[in-house]
Design a protein that fits this description.
Strands 1, 2, 3, 8, 9, 10, 13, 14, 17 and 18 form a ten-stranded mixed sheet that branches. Strands 19-20-21 form a three-stranded antiparallel sheet. A hairpin with a 3-residue loop joins strand 6 (144-145) and strand 7 (149-150). Among the domains are: 76-239, no CATH class; 410-455, no CATH class; 550-654. Helix content is 37%, strand content 16%.
Length: 693
């Protein structure tokens, strides 16, 4: 095994080492001895080799809890919530026990009666699903998973629930439900109606779908779950209907079921060469976990052992493509995805069938369709594409099936007194120094380079190609695929609408979109280091930005979409920076707005009087002579100037407020303070390995 890089070592130390352990080898030895305790020595040695070389990595709860007093090694759970207080709070307790050990939980709140309904037992009225969502969220905030990370949840509500609008908008306040992902469960009938393929010329669902897409465009929530698509591949329909998933949407489970996950590392040549053998070995490892894990409740143990669902996926797929010079956004890349995953799927079923012959078929699988060529298998489901944010950082490869988020990661947290940079790609031969310097500085390849397409980063891949790649993997996966459909900041709600429709038509079982910068109404500002270059004759004063600033955001409706103006101030309440973004606009107006905000920030930081700045902005006319919005703003500069006039009195309200009064930001890492990226349905820190879903 090669020596670990600094970031691999950091992730290992912060997440997985137990007392007395100092090396990855120690973790592997503990995990293999616990998971493989019933295996012959030869198999245990193969397990050890597979994990030590990062050919395969199991989910984080296994690495954290194997051989410890916690002992719960599964990652994904779905718990039922029925329409009574006993069920609601029993499930809350089960959630706490699961999250204490590092598992993620999913819930379908659709059974709960709507807000305002009569409650006969108390002669009162029901508070509705969203109110209980807040209770679950608060409980999760007090639990730290496995002592290493905070819990994560998925909340699902059917599109036809009377409280669906409250649910869709529940995260419009970014300080609310910070421990939940939200998904609306929709049927084929719903999608047919909203796409014009149904029986009605106009359906009430059209307006609902519009609200869903606009909310997803604005905040990233909710996602969609296609429940009919999922249930068509439900391997055990006699045991119930699938209604919910784990936090990242890839693991559809019946009530009380859990699933253990793991990923094969496609960046390793040894894995690709021996994919069949390693797949069957990994299936054996995951099946062993089901027998040794300590379950949070007897119901969970019974349901899990009944179907023995496992989730074998991949990581390092972007590395695999880069190594072969295949651009991510091509049909050839998607063919590679289907080919690789098809082999893994077949090999996983073969491994499961061999285990069934050796160890027996669980009760839940005795009624499988006789025409299923793998009906006599041990695991109801074998393959999945799950997030691998932290484990892929540990393994030193790209995350899941995502393209590289950046070619260069700057780790701001100091190690041994120095900051360090991780270059996520190897330098190709015969690349001029000036081109390589561009890559190191910008984190992406120059668009004029012939290598740009091969090294295209997540935000350089179109949303259509993101969806197409998810669909390519879904064809050969028997559970589902966790993937974020990244969109640029200037994407429109119509783009989100089209992405949702394309995902449904392509056979995906769910979809999540994230538009870059779509969380503008944040109380605190991101600790972003901005380098401003000015002409030689302009002598700008040095400005050292605080890591946390307080401010406010003003939303202004314009004919080009909503303009968001954020102003942050220093400890004295004086404005020191301004950010402005405008949606549903072309690249020119978006670039103009951003550049104007940068120049205003530069002026504020160099003590240009606020009155002088606003004097230059106010009254500038635009094409809309009558003005827009309630304040009749004449133009974007006029609107920004009027918002600036509000800043002194509003910022003064923050003078006596400390940062402890504010909840945790979703876009800042709580452990090292760096900006989180959004991948695979999760917020992930590229600097220290922290993740939350």
């Amino acid at each position: 095994m090669a020596e670990l890089s600094p970031i691999q070592q950091r992730v290992l130390e912060s997440r997985y080492l137990q007392p007395g352990e100092t090396k990855w080898e120690h973790v592997v030895e503990r995990v293999v001895n616990f998971v493989g305790q019933s295996e012959p020595q030869e198999i245990k040695e193969r397990f050890f080799e597979m994990l030590l070389n990062f050919w395969f990595v199991p989910n984080s709860p296994t690495l954290m809890n194997a051989g410890t007093t916690l002992g719960d090694l599964c990652a994904c759970y779905v718990l039922p919530i029925h329409d009574n207080m006993e069920s609601i709070f029993t499930t809350l307790y089960d959630m706490a026990m699961i999250q204490k050990c590092g598992g993620g939980t999913g819930f379908d709140f659709s059974e709960l009666r709507p807000k305002g309904s009569a409650v006969s037992s108390t002669q009162g009225v029901a508070s509705g699903p969203v109110s209980f969502l807040n209770i679950y969220n608060a409980a999760t905030a007090e639990i730290k998973q496995g002592g290493r990370r905070r819990g994560a949840n998925m909340a699902v509500l059917r599109y036809d629930h009377p409280d669906i609008m409250d649910f869709i908008t529940a995260k419009h306040d970014p300080t609310k439900l910070t421990n939940f992902n939200l998904s609306v469960a929709v049927t084929d009938t719903f999608m047919q109606e909203v796409t014009g393929e149904g029986t009605y010329f106009y359906s009430p669902d059209d307006e609902l779908f519009k609200q869903i897409t606009e909310s997803a465009w604005g905040t990233g929530d909710p996602g969609l779950l296609f429940i009919d698509t999922a249930n068509r591949s439900n391997p055990v329909p006699s045991l119930g209907r699938l209604t919910s998933t784990n936090p990242c949407g890839e693991s559809w489970l019946l009530p009380y079921e859990s699933c253990v996950l793991g990923a094969l590392n496609l960046s390793k040549p040894e894995v690709v060469t021996n994919l069949h053998e390693l797949t069957m070995l990994a299936v054996r490892f995951l099946d062993d976990i089901i027998d040794v894990t300590k379950y949070a409740s007897p119901k969970i143990e019974e349901a899990t052992r009944c179907t023995r669902k496992i989730g074998l996926g991949v990581m390092g797929f972007a590395d695999y493509l880069i190594q072969r010079g295949i651009p991510y956004s091509t049909e050839r890349a998607r063919q590679c995805a289907s080919s690789l995953m098809g082999l893994i799927q077949t090999s996983a079923y073969m491994g499961s069938a061999l285990l069934a012959a050796e160890r027996g078929i669980p009760d839940g699988l005795r009624g499988l369709a006789p025409n299923d060529p793998w009906s006599k298998r041990r695991n109801a489901q074998c393959t999945i594409i799950a997030p691998t944010g932290t484990t892929s950082m540990l393994a030193g490869c790209s995350s899941g099936i995502e393209p590289l988020y950046s070619l260069v990661t700057v780790h701001e947290q100091q190690m041994e007194g120095d900051k360090f940079t991780t270059v996520n790609i190897a330098r190709p031969e015969a690349i001029p120094d000036e081109v390589w310097d561009y890559v190191l500085e910008r984190g992406c390849w120059p668009k004029t380079s012939r290598l740009h397409d091969i090294y295209r980063t997540a935000h350089e891949v179109s949303w259509r190609d993101h969806v197409a790649m998810q669909a390519a993997f879904q064809m050969c996966v028997d559970n589902a695929v966790s993937k974020t459909i990244n969109m640029p900041n200037n994407a429109t709600p119509e783009d989100v609408n089209n992405a949702f429709v394309l995902a449904w038509k392509s056979g995906c079982k769910g979809v999540t979109v994230y538009r870059d910068g779509s969380k503008p109404e944040q109380v605190l500002s991101a600790p972003k280091v901005v380098r401003v270059e000015v002409e030689a004759e302009v002598e700008a004063a040095a400005y050292e930005r605080e890591s946390i600033l307080l401010g406010f955001t003003r939303k202004v409706k314009t004919g080009l979409g909503s303009l968001y103006v954020t102003i942050n101030g220093d400890d004295d309440g004086q404005p020191v920076e301004l950010f402005a973004t405008i949606g549903r606009a072309g690249t020119e107006i978006a670039a103009f707005t951003e550049s104007l905000a940068r120049m205003i920030s530069l002026a504020l930081r160099n003590d240009i009087p606020l009155s002088s700045i606003t004097h230059q902005l106010l009254g500038i006319g635009g094409s809309n002579a009558g003005g827009f919005g309630e304040e009749k703003y004449l133009s974007v500069p006029d609107a920004i100037g009027k918002v600036l006039l509000m800043s002194p009195q509003i910022l003064s309200a923050f003078e006596d407020i400390t940062t402890e009064d504010y909840p945790e930001r979703l876009d800042l890492c709580p452990e090292c303070g760096q900006v989180l990226s959004f991948q695979e349905g999760c917020a992930q820190c590229p600097s220290c390995g922290y993740s939350r879903c």
